[in-house]
Amino acid sequence: MHYVELVEAGLNNFKRREGHEPLPPGRGQALVRMRAASLNFIDLAVAQGIYPGISYPLIPVADGAGEVVAVGPEVINVSTGDRVALHPKVLWHAGRASALQARTMRGVDRPGSLVELATVDAATLVKAPDHLSWEAIATLPITATTAWNALATGEIGPGSTVALLGTGGVSIFALQLAKARGGRVIITSSSDEKLERARALGADETVNYSTNPDWETAILKLTGGVGADLVLDTVGASSFARSLAAVRQGGVVYTVGFVTGSKLEVDLMPLIVKAVRVVGNNTGSVANLAEAVAAIAAHRIEPVVDHVFKLGELSDAYSALAAGGHLGKLAIRLDW
Ligand SMILES: NC(=O)c1ccc[n+]([C@@H]2O[C@H](COP(=O)([O-])OP(=O)(O)OC[C@H]3O[C@@H](n4cnc5c(N)ncnc54)[C@H](OP(=O)(O)O)[C@@H]3O)[C@@H](O)[C@H]2O)c1
After folding, report:
1. How far is CA 167 from CA 94, 199, 221, 235, in A?
2. From the CA of 316, how far away is ligand 1's center (Å)?
3. Is the CB of 245 under 6 A from ligand 1?
4. Fewest beta carbons less than 10 Å away: which of 12, 46, 68, 296?
5. Pocket probe mutation, ligand 1, options 235, 243, 283, 285, max atoms within 8 Å of Cβ
């Protein structure tokens, strides 16, 4: 059985390995033939050695998709032949998480997706909609779950306005799911070409944050001075104060990202005066993923896969994520 190891921190430190065939799945377990993986910012942080508490070597990449090839006794949610997404938070099935449930994650402190055959707890598998490719299924776990949880927390529906920062994986899923929920979407980007693509995906309004660094003012203008009901902050230190300015009275700033760092000095006054709900998030549960997948199936949403890399191009895939030229997701096809 083949797998890939990240032997130590560094984007050129992936080594292909061969190991023993896995044992038949035990009680409650499934054996999954992995077909595709997709990259998230956390995979980059793990590979760059900037994510806390990592021990190398490890099998990298949190998100993945595959086909169930065997199930153990007492598995009731999946069968042989099912196409599934593997949820990376392997201990967090539903409800509020304990610190351990929130922290434990495939590709971080559990074996990740760059493996030919994965033995997993069947309860962490979610059946994929028929219309999706392997690569598209692999984009779902972290990104669709996070985007869905943001929209659910902001109670986004007809009449709501969502502000999305940048055109990365989380923002683009949030755009697609917000439109499915009937919301109005304002999205920012450093690139007019990406904003054009976002419009084609249904964005109602676009703001270029490079040519218009005071993007929060643009959002206020586009909402008649009121502000967005939900600002999904995927950017972090450089955007948080502006997100507080862009959200409406009593609205939600849903903070998930640290692309520009995580340390900042904040003026509490806008937060207090506007009674803003600042909600932190750490992905979500298997049940949250299942909700997002149900919406994706019902609305036949096509995840945006910007590029599919081969296994031999892993360093290129990680470098592409770091460079940020993509819109939506970067995927890896697992052809051994
Ligand atoms: N906590 C959670 O639950 C959770 C879950 C998923 C992701 N995340 C985090 O959320 C963040 C985004 O994840 P992702 O997967 O969407 O990342 P991504 O695909 O790499 O997208 C990041 C995007 O952010 C935009 N950006 C970069 N620098 C910016 C700046 N200075 N100002 C405004 N926008 C900027 C860029 O958009 P343009 O190219 O359009 O300019 C870029 O494409 C990461 O920090 C990730 O770790 C957290």
Report:
1. 29, 11, 21, 11
2. 19
3. no
4. 12
5. 235
Q: Return the domain boundaries, the chain.
A: 2-139+303-333, 144-280
Average pLDDT over residues 305-323: 97
Query: Ligand 1 atom closest to Cα of 166?
Result: 37
CATH code: domain 144-280 is 3.40.50.720
Residue-wise pLDDT for 191-219, tens only, equals: 999 999 999 999 999 999 999 999 999 99
Q: What is the mean pLDDT of residues 76-101?
A: 98
Q: Domain 2-139+303-333 has what CATH class? A: alpha beta
- Nearest alpha carbon, ligand 1 atom 32: 235
C-alpha distances in angstroms, 105 versus 113, 256, 282? 11, 16, 11
pLDDT at 173: 98
pLDDT, tens digit (0-9, with 9 covering 90-100), for 129-138 = 999 999 999 9
Q: What is the DSSP letter of 143?
A: I
Ligand 1 center to 115 CA (angstroms): 26
Calculate the average pLDDT of the chain: 97
CA 54 to chain centre: 20
Q: In whole angstroms, how far apart are CA 294 and each of 56, 125, 298?
A: 36, 14, 6
Q: Name the band, by pLDDT with cuts 50, 70 and 90, for residue 156.
A: very high
Q: Does the beta carbon of 243 sit less than 6 angstroms from any atom of ligand 1?
A: no
> Can you tell me whether residue 98 is helix, strand or coil?
coil
CB-based burial of residue 143 (10 Å sphere; 0-12 exposed, 13-18 middle, 19+ buried)?
buried
pLDDT in the model for residue 279: 98
**Cα–Cα distance between 46 and 9 in angstroms, integer?**
7
Find out whether the peptide bond into 57 is cis, omega within 30 degrees of 0.
yes
Nearest ligand 1 atom to the CA of 170 is 16
Confidence of residue 159 (pLDDT cuts 50, 70, 90): very high
